[in-house]
Amino acid sequence: MHKISFPIMGDYNVPANFLLNKAFKEEIIMPPPITSKTIELGTKYSPDFVCTPFKYTLGTMIEAIQKGADTLIQMGGGCRYGYYGEVQAQILKDLGYDVKLINLVTKGKLSLRRIVKVLKQADIKYSKLKAIYYGFIAIKMVKYMDIIDDYIRENIGFEIKEGSFEALKFNMLKEFSQVKNHHELKKIYRYYQKEITSVPIRKPDKPLKIGIIGELYTIMEPFSNYYLEKQLAQNKIEIKRFTNVHYLLFEKQNKIKEYLKYVKKYIKYQLGADGADNVARTKYLCEAGYDGIIHIKSSFCTPEIGVMPIINKIASEYEVPVLFFSFDANTSETGIKTRLEAFYDMLEMRREK
Amino acid sequence: MKDAYLGVDIGSISTKGVIIDDDNNIITSSYIWTEGSPIKAVRKLIDILKKDLPSNYQIKGIGTTGSARKLIGLLLNANIVKNEITAHAVGTLTFYPDVRTILEIGGQDSKIILLKNGIITNYAMNTLCAAGTGSFLSSQAKRLGLDVSEFGKYALKSKNPVKIAARCTVFAESDLVHKAQVGYKVEDIVAGLCKSIVLNYLNNVGKGKKIEAPIIFQGGVSKNVGVIKYFKEILGEDIIVDENGHLMGAIGIAVLARKNKIGKTYSLELSDIAFDTKAFECSGCPNNCELLKIYRNNELVDSWGSKCGKY
């Protein structure tokens, strides 16, 4: 029997763990939460100039191996991320770990036929029927989580009793992880949706609104962005974020043409990964009256570096301030705080005038 | 009794303090070295300011800014603690309401602030490296055997500044050594260094920012006439350097302390206040957070560094 594990990102380990446990006839090892130790391990064994998500995922893999995993799952992407699986497999092999690494995505494409082939090669036993059924539930779970998160992001800065949203969400994820069928999932979702939307908040008519755009892993894993959303919320700011797993899996392909048309004044082609998406989002945020934009990425993220001058240009045309952050394993937290504080002060001063 | 407001700007290299009245007049000010101990420096600073403060003034507000703002805010019981970007902008706007660009080069960091109609529209701080900041200049001055305050004048003597690779402090230093060893004159090297600081600043901090006049240059490095000269030359605009430029952060935070006063009167007597910090590492989870507990009069007032909120 194999012991399977996977890298962690945000709260998405809940649906991932759910699906693997239900569909695979193998033992699933839940990776430990990301801590300073994870990134320390990842940094130690990664090439220095590789982007930070590589280091985080490598760190989690090593921690999962230490917990007993012998088979790891990695997903590729539309940039260097697409080669992560192969490079990480080599690093783990050089470190003397005898593990199998399954890359579900190659050449930036996710094809079911390929996944079936790869799983067969790795001799992973699973039930096809269950994979389809629970895959459907896991996708729904992701969608529900993303809807709830969007609401929380807009309102968490204004909750009257601190921690109410987080406590509810914690319980929701706990119940999600134990659902038996779609009906039950939907019931739990409806219950928490009602609970979460009725959390008492004190929100001014026109709160400061900030849109967060940038590279996907850094956006979705709060540890890697130094809990940026939390810090913003503490300053009573409404947050809008576009990137989530549901978007990446199901919405991105359909929207990209529309996006390119929307920003044809600035770009003609896609820029790799979420580059074109972020250009379109910048224009949208400017037109929708957001007070400011925060662009975050991991250091050395090539597609996003290419996007930055275009964002600057759009934002200066609309006179909307943009703050750029590059996060690395060695980023100083004080530096982030100072810049965020100044950004917040600036937005507030602009409002007052 | 007349009201007065204290602003303290605790930077990496120097600690600045001003006391202003209701009309933004500077009653007294001081500028001392931080010398790695912000608490000690501030105690010294307050003693100096206290001596010069006429007895018919009472302190109605205290603000702190600069990299040690949080710590000193607790020591002084400040009514406002703000970052240095906002403080510098507010201070400068008090005296120059039309300013469009503030260039600031301090000991460890450099920043640019763009303003329009009296509000900040954009800003940036150096991110990766301290090349081209005050501490680099002073270490190079020491290496060349010059006094850092004479450095700028020396640069003005040069007719032919050498080119220095100033992208990174370490590379710049090896380039400087190389230029000296092949026989370039000291004034040409000093001038080259001043010029490279300007270029480095404009390429890194000022990248993509539209610099418009009136331009004000501040921070410790603004005392260097060589750097001023090259800013003028490269930007093709006049550069204003205020004689109180080094105090702008402190003035700004004093102004903010007045705007946010809470009706309390503060004492400047610090000698009887015990202030201590204790550091320890939490081993509750693999995060191993470095925690710092702050005690004021042996009472725990704050603790920093916890990721989970346990402390």
Structure characterization notes:
The complex is a heterodimer of chains A (353) and B (311). Helices cover 55% and strands 11% of the residues of chain A. The longest helix of chain A is centred in the middle third of the chain and has 28 residues, at 128-155. Chain A has 3 domains: 3-126, 3-Layer(aba) Sandwich (Rossmann fold), CATH 3.40.50; 134-203, no CATH class; 204-353, 3-Layer(aba) Sandwich (Rossmann fold). Chain A has helices at 13-23, 36-45, 52-66, 84-94, 112-121, 128-155, 164-176, 182-197, 216-220, 228-234, 245-262, 275-287, 302-318, 333-352; strands at residues 3-5, 27-28, 71-74, 100-103, 208-214, 237-241, 292-298, 322-327. Chain A has 353 residues and is an alpha/beta fold. Chain A is globular and about 65 Å long. Chain B is α/β, with parallel strands linked by helices and 311 residues long. Chain B folds into 3 domains: 2-90 and 250-259, ATPase, nucleotide binding domain (Nucleotidyltransferase, domain 5, 2-Layer Sandwich); 97-241, Nucleotidyltransferase, domain 5; 275-304, no CATH class. Chain B contains 9 helices and 13 strands. In chain B, the strands form 3 sheets. Chain B has a 5-stranded mixed beta sheet with strand order 3-2-1-4-5, with helices on both faces. In chain B, strand 1 (2-10) and strand 2 (14-20) form a beta hairpin. In chain B, helix 3 (84-95) crosses helix 9 (248-259) and helix 7 (186-204) packs across helix 8. The radius of gyration of chain B is 21 Å and the shape is globular. The mean pLDDT of chain B is 87. Chain A binds chain B through residues 32, 35-38, 309, 312, 316, 319, 321, 326, 334-335, 337-339, 341-342, 345-346, 349-350, 353, and chain B through 67, 82-86, 117-123, 125, 127, 208, 210, 285-289.
Provide tags for this entry.
heterodimer, A: 353 residues, alpha/beta, Rossmann fold, 3 domains, 4-stranded parallel sheet, 11% strand, globular, B: 311 residues, Nucleotidyltransferase, domain 5, 5-stranded mixed sheet, 9 helices, 26% strand
